[in-house]
Amino acid sequence: MARQESDNTNSTDSEVNEGSSQIVYTFDWNMKTQQIILGSFYCGYSVGPILGGWLVGRFGGFSMLMTGILFTTFPMLVTQFAAHFGVGFVILTRIIDGFGQGIAYPANLVLIRNWSKADERNTLLAIAFSGCSVGPILTSYISTWLCSSEFMGGWPSTFYLYGTIGVVWCVVWCIVGSKTNMQSNLQDNYNYEVPWKLMTSPPVITLYFVHFVFDAGYILLITDIPTFFNSILNFDLELAGLLNMAPHLCVLCMTVIGGLLGDYLISHDKLSILGTRRLLNTFCFGLTAVFIIILGYVYNSDLSLTIMVFAFGIYGFKFAGVNANVLDIAPFHSGIIIGMMISIGSIGGLVATTLLGVLTETNNTLRQWRVEFWTQAALQICALLAFFIFGSDKPQEWAKPPEESADIERQH
């Protein structure tokens, strides 16, 4: 179908497929509008984790996880209708979607805290958060196939599919999750109050900084490295499929390996809890720093791709390192702490992309990219050293649960 030439970002075209009465709608949104729509997700995602961490403390992980998924599911189901009312409504659905995902993250962590023992949490964390890698791999291919089909109008079918999956998940969660919640005999609803000492506690501040650095490197690798390969190294972007899939597969493997390794080292007394966290963080940030630097000095396409994939994949050790450490030092307040970590981390991603934009705006050369790579590597090493110096595995005095939940925490 020929798209109408128009500057009106709300205009639509329609096409009737041969042999059917199906109408396919397209929207004349310029690149700026598209980027605003995509970026609006993070407006909700930057707020959701902090508020979600507090709500989890008030209402428990079970109910808030389902709430987060519902907030994500509803926008999916109404996206097509929102698009016909205007760009502003689509942006609103993206903000709500981001908010819902932000709530779900701390709720997930709190449930793992409540439903597991200390020597199995690394593995469970790894399994749970491996979905962050599996999801992009599966959805990228499913969405591409659906968008190119005539099923339910093409692109709208992707939103209907994921929205429907969300509804089904919520029903299953009500049945299975509530049974597990009752069997665990954990009533995690309290008159929750945020201990504001978490803003001045050295181990917690360290986690904030480490997560800031993590997101800065992660966002750089996932969003900007393909541009580096194309504009600087002039690699064939037929490799785009590999760039999309291979890093997530590597993260998936490293996440599971990190979880299993962490639990093995702790349960077999090979290392202390803090020693295990330090080791995994050394893998995560130390090796990534080395790979990022090397990336700026390699010109072989196969070797560069391999280095990029491993640099990205090694970040999978972070879940059994940084994330699990939240449960070491403040298990009862893990929801609010991980929520703040995520929100602060999103600033790291913004800083990384902004710095790269400043460096390459008028002089997009290999030299400028190397400055970015060395800066990122230096941040990774700073994060590694900060955790070695200020990291802890001891429950903080201010983080003790209220008296009525003390017996619950002693069980774990």
What do you see in this structure?
By secondary structure, the protein is an all-alpha fold. It is 73% helix and 2% strand. The chain has 14 helices and two strands; from the N terminus they run E-E-H-H-H-H-H-H-H-H-H-H-H-H-H-H. The chain has helices at residues 31-59, 61-85, 87-115, 121-129, 131-147, 156-183, 202-231, 240-267, 273-295, 301-313, 318-329, 334-360, 366-390, 406-410; strands at 12-16, 23-27. A two-stranded antiparallel sheet has the order 1-2. A hairpin with a 6-residue loop joins strand 1 (12-16) and strand 2 (23-27). The chain is globular, with a radius of gyration of 23 Å. Mean pLDDT is 80; it is low at 1-9, 16-21 and 404-412.
Helical residue percent band: over 70%
Residue share in β-strands: under 5%
Strands side by side in the biggest sheet: 1-2
What is the succession of H and E elements?
EEHHHHHHHHHHHHHH
- Rg from Cα: 23 Å
Helix and strand content put the structural class at mainly alpha
Q: Which of globular, elongated, flat, extended, rod-shaped describes the shape?
A: globular
In total, the number of strands is 2
**Count of helical stretches:** 14
